[in-house]
Amino acid sequence: MSDQKRPIPQPGILDIAPYLPGKSGAPGSKAIKLSANESPLGASPQAVAAFAAAADHLEIYPEGSSRLLREALGEVHGIDPNAIVCGNGSDDLLHLLAQTYLGHGDEAVMNRYGFSVYPIITKAAGAEIVTVDEVDYTANVDALLAAITPRTRIVWLANPNNPTGTYLSVAEVARLHAGLRPDILLVIDSAYAEYVTAADYSVGLDLVEAHENVVMVRTFSKMGLAAARIGWMVGPGHVVDAINRIRGPFNVNLPAQLAGAAATRDIAFNQRLKAHNAQWRDWLTAQLQSNRMRVIPSQANFVMVLFETPELAARAFETLAAAGYIVREIGASYGIHNGLRISIGSEEAMRGVAEVLKSMEGAQ
């Protein structure tokens, strides 16, 4: 009999740094949360109504394939519903992709400031994560390709990227894919696609439809349904088949399926959310850009602000918190110790954040 006195995790599990979410205000406080890239306009009213109506059917298992949601997504985005897999948030699908295509001895490649979930799911699958340097906080295609080895099985690409807000053009993503072996899966994480205004951007569907080694992952969390936990993925038939074999049989609950389908079809709300974000993202960028603060141009629903020193970034975080604005520290999670990530919120919140940071700068 083993002399172990308790169950022991698989090798490497306890070496994984856990995900660190953005902070919230203390319970009962009136602090404005700008740390998690949530919708400042709430959720689609149609989605809210659909979610509430599902309360009449809570005793029934949800349809296992999320058919109604997949059909709505296919209708609006021009995609074959059979090419779509839905998940309990996009994190669920990213975990499934790692579990399916990575194992001991394998490697996955990502840019240095890519989404912090990628190392977690890669290591949890027993593989190694390889990070490569960026150019001015933007993924570098040449560096990513140079990191490919015979052990590479996945390339993770958040586009736009979190926490920097930067993106790769459609031409650069195509160049990245063209440099990969056919047995390497390119995962295009388009979590912030709804907010992109750049003319040379693509969500990745063109590559998915033309090749056998590309998938695109999306989420509803940034468009007002973060609490419902809904993600979706588009991929070639062999990838969809593999993921469907191991995903939970009821991995998207019924209220989420119905709310997601309604939100997908509420195009007017989604356009209003995008327009609000573009207006106040650009406004905040212009207001904060200065000799002591640098705002990285963003295509997402947040901006990353860089300060002269980590100490100034920490003081800015505390000053904003004292004024009632909770933003995202990104030193511990991403190694950008002189930066803060600020979600785009209401007009009132954006004007308040700008006032606090500019007054702090003037006092230096």
From TrEMBL:
MF terms in GO: histidinol-phosphate transaminase activity
Domain of life: Bacteria
Swiss-Prot/TrEMBL keywords: Amino-acid biosynthesis, Aminotransferase, Histidine biosynthesis, Pyridoxal phosphate, Transferase
Keyword Transferase set for record: yes
Entries under Gene3D superfamilies matching the protein: Aspartate Aminotransferase, domain 1, Type I PLP-dependent aspartate aminotransferase-like (Major domain)
Entry-annotated residues carrying N6-(pyridoxal phosphate)lysine: 222
Oxidoreductase is among the record's keywords: no
Pathway entry: Amino-acid biosynthesis; L-histidine biosynthesis; L-histidine from 5-phospho-alpha-D-ribose 1-diphosphate: step 7/9
Cofactor or coenzyme needed: pyridoxal 5'-phosphate
Assembly mode: Homodimer.
Coiled coil (UniProt feature): none
Name of the protein in question: Histidinol-phosphate aminotransferase
Reactions this protein catalyses: L-histidinol phosphate + 2-oxoglutarate = 3-(imidazol-4-yl)-2-oxopropyl phosphate + L-glutamate
Family: Belongs to the class-II pyridoxal-phosphate-dependent aminotransferase family. Histidinol-phosphate aminotransferase subfamily.
Stretches assigned to the Aminotransferase class I/classII large domain: 30-356
InterPro entries: Aminotransferase_I/II_large (IPR004839), HisP_aminotrans (IPR005861), HistidinolP_aminotransfase (IPR050106), PyrdxlP-dep_Trfase (IPR015424), PyrdxlP-dep_Trfase_major (IPR015421), PyrdxlP-dep_Trfase_small (IPR015422)
EC number: 2.6.1.9
